[in-house]
Every structure is written in C-alpha cells, then in structure tokens.
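thread: overnight batch results

M.L. [08:02]
morning all. the overnight job finished for the chain we discussed friday. pasting input first so we're all looking at the same thing
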Amino acid sequence: MDQHSAMNGFLRDVERRALRIAEMSVGNRDDAMEIVQDSMMGLVRRYAGRPSGEWKPLFYRIMQSRINDFHRRRVVRMRVMAMLPRNPPEQGGMIADPMENATRGERENPLREMETEAATQAMIAAIERLPDRQKQTFMLRAWEGLSVADTAKAMGCSQGSVKTHYSRALKNLQRQLEDVKP
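M.L. [08:03]
and the structure it wrote out:
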C-alpha cells in the first residue's frame, strides 16, 4: 500500500473517534468537525512523509492544540463580548444588535451608551499603548482568530514567542483596563 492510501485509511479510521472526542471537548458538533478537519489537514500537510506508526500521536497532538486554541478564542470572545451593551432582561438579555440600534434613531439608555463608548475607547487606547510585538500578537490572535502556529508564521517568530507576547499583552491590557467600567 502506498503512503497516500495509507494516510487515507488512517484518516478514515480515526475520523469518528476524533469527532466524538472533539465534540465532547468543545460542546458543539460543527466546531468539532472544523477542528477535526483542520487537524487532519495539518497532519497531511506537515507529517504525511513520516512513518505511519507516528501518525496517531501526531494527529491527536494537533487536534488537542486546535481544541486548546478554540477554548482560548472563546475566552477572549467572552471578554470582548462582556464589554458590549446588552438588551434589558425583558428583551431576553441578549447582546444588542449594533445594526438594529443604529437604525432606530432613538436612544434607549444614553448613560449606558456613554459607558460602553468610553470602555471601547479605553480598550482601543490600551491596545495602542501595547509594545508593537504584543499589539501585533494580540490583534492576530484575539481579533483575527489565528492559531498560535499561523500567528508565528505571520510574525516570523517561534510559537513560544507568540505565546509569550500574547500572555504579556493580556496581562498588560488587564492591568490597564482594571478600572474601566463597561
């Protein structure tokens, strides 16, 4: 059996179990499918030439990394979303739709809008004050949603450097924004 056929067979064999693991880890089948597919592509792209006995641990390492990235992005999204205005409880307490609010013409809660605008401006100013590498890492990871590996490629540095810069950026932003009221 040639390497290409062996890889296809391996991916077929591991797909169902990997999907189940990913789904349990992220709680959503669509996200789990994306993680598994991305992991498969990563394995094929980077390790197809390796002996087939190495594929399974490599695949699960890639998949676990993707799952960790998913959870990190979710935490960042939740932090950012916490700064956005919410509708009153009688409207379900959902995050306000900026397009809906923009077309309304009236202001439901001017004080809340001012606080949200101030918090947004404080966040933008805090990001602008970050050192360049931290700012670049934060923007690529948090706002663009790039993985650690893709961020490292984009920045021309190691994945360890990306993790360090990102961690420092988050701590720096947290310190700068601890007194800001969303």
